[in-house]
Amino acid sequence: MPGTLSHTRIMTPSRRNKYSCIFAAPPWMRILVRDINDPAERLTQGVRGGVDIIDLSNICSCAFISTQDTGRLLDHGRFMIEGRIAGSDIRGCNLLVQ
Question: Domains (ranges, CATH) in the chain?
Fold first, then answer.
């Protein structure tokens, strides 16, 4: 299907350790970090919050995901995933840390 991406093509880890992952988003994606207590408030670079992902090339299904992951924006289009919001379900890579 045109415009759809597999998970492995969406984000490429540039560095990984036990507690956090740094990703570089492709040019057609926008990563936003929101305040955990006020989802309408967008946070600036370096401030920890909930991670939202917009896939501008995805026209065939959901183009926006509001995750329960915590992270922060970094420089040069990179972002860091640091864990899960307290009380959220454990999913993905976090299952390996448990």
Answer: 10-97 (2.30.38.10)
Beta pairing partners, 86: none
CB count within 10 Å of CB 79 equals 21
The rounded distance, in Å, linking the Cα atoms of 71 and 73 is 7
Task: Express each pLDDT in 13-62 by its tens digit.
Answer: 444 444 568 888 888 899 999 999 999 999 999 999 999 999 888 878 87
Q: 27 and 10 in contact (C-beta within 8 Å)?
A: no
CB 69 within 8 A of CB 50: yes
Residue 2: which of 44, 60, 77, 47 has the closest Cα?
60
> Side chain identity at 32, as an amino acid letter?
L
